[in-house]
Every structure is written in C-alpha cells, then in structure tokens.
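Hi U.,

Before I forget, here's the chain from the pilot set. I'm dumping it here mostly so it's searchable later in email.
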Amino acid sequence: MALKVVNGIAITHPDRVISQSGQITKGELAEYYAAAAPLMLAELNRRPISLLRCPSGVDGGCFFQRNPGKGLGAHVRTFAFQNKGKNYEYLYIEDKNGLLEIVQMGAIELHPWGAKIDAIDYPDRIIFDLDPAPGVPFEAVKLAARELRQRLKNEGLKASLKCTGGKGLHVIVPLNGKDKWAAVKSFAASIAKRMVVTTPEAYIATMSKAKRTGKIFIDYFRNDYTATAIADYSVRARPGAPIALPLNWDELASLKSADQFSVKDVLRRLERKPSRPPSRVSQALPERKQA
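Structure:
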C-alpha cells in the first residue's frame, strides 16, 4: 500500500483524488494542512470539532463525525462533558499531528465550536453567517457584510471577515470569553433582527427556507451551545475543493465569490506572508446586552 509521510504522520492512499475538479489528492491535502497548521491551530486548538469525512473523495459520499470511533490517531483527543443531564464525548486536537491524523481518517472539512474545552460554557466569538438564497447577487452579500461590520462598530466591537468557501461570508467578533452562550446568542439575534427590521426586503433572520427567496439569511444560530462553523483555512468538500479563507476588509471590494480560493491560491498567500497565528482582540459584549 502506498504511503506518504507528512510531519511524521503516515498518510495512506496519498494519490487518491479527493476532488477531480480541484485536482487535489489526499497527499496534497495533508501537505496543505501541514502548511496551514500554525494558522488553523490558532482557532482549532482544544475546541470540540465536527469532521466532514469523505473517505472516497467529495463525490463518493461524505458524513459528519464528532464522537469518538474506530481508527482515531494517537493525537486526536476526546472530551467528555455533560449537558442537560446527558453525557457526551466529542473530538478535539492540540497540534499539527492531530490535524494530519484527521486527514488520514478521510476528513476534509473541520467545524469547531465557538468555545474551548477549558471553558465550554463561555464562547469566545460571535459568528454571523450571511447565507444568500439562490439568485441573490454576491455584491448584495458583500453589502450586507459591510453593514453588519458598521453595526458592530457602533456597538464598540471590531469584526473580522471570512469567505466560507461556499456561497456566503462570515463576519466574526472575537470575545473575551466572559459571557455565557445565552447572552452571546441574544446579542447576535438583536443585531440580526435590527438589520431585518431596517431592510426586510433584503434580509431574513429565521430558519424558514420558504421565506428566504430573494433574501440573505443572517444566521446567528451558530452562536448556540454545540453549534459549529467552518474553520479558518479549511478545505471544503465541494467541487474544486475551495478554501474557507479569512480576509482583510480591504480585500472585500475585489472579491468575486465566496469560493474563489483554491488550495494553490492559499499556498501562494502563505508563501508571501509568514504563517503566524492572528492576534486575538479581547472584547466584551456591550453591557446593556448582557443577560
């Protein structure tokens, strides 16, 4: 059986094509994640994660896994906790070896929680997922991201930007981890609902797909306990294997789509810029919004 060793981790079937249109193999995926690891682990380290595993590639059937199972590598950890009287056990990683062992398992996408296992009841970020209905132009999504950023700025909060590798954009607010899930979700809901009240023809903040036609869903529900969002620099299990890429706000104007960046594009970016973890801004929710 063919093997490829990446950072000391044996990757089996390295020549298996995981995305024909993206022209990327399992071995190349491992090499990409090894290169992006310093940036990815700044977010992933010690967070529960859900994995989208596609053992035969993106066209061969995929499934989510967040609980322990057979074939875990030695560096893929498990986290046991209780919620509402029930016991759970989820996965997490702490280092590059854990990340590569996840690739060896056939995982492509990584979706972390909004809190770390050491403070699981205290999220350290807010995520707004701007999800356009079919037919909504991408320029409208960009406009929504700018409006959301300004509304958060008016609340005294700095926000960052990420293209999801799918259809939409994420606007993320780092937090100091002092507020519980209910308070964070309540604040996110208030921002989203104010945008809907101001421009109801453009935005919706409910999960009803029947009402989303022609609108952008401002998804604040990713700020729930156990909810996840696609990781920074994660490859997506979609045609072309696009990347969920953090961006500077000044890159938004020239952005053509949320899935325009390939593995090769991001590797070139990493060559131009040192792969140093981003600095995290510690922010508190506005006091009037705290529960």
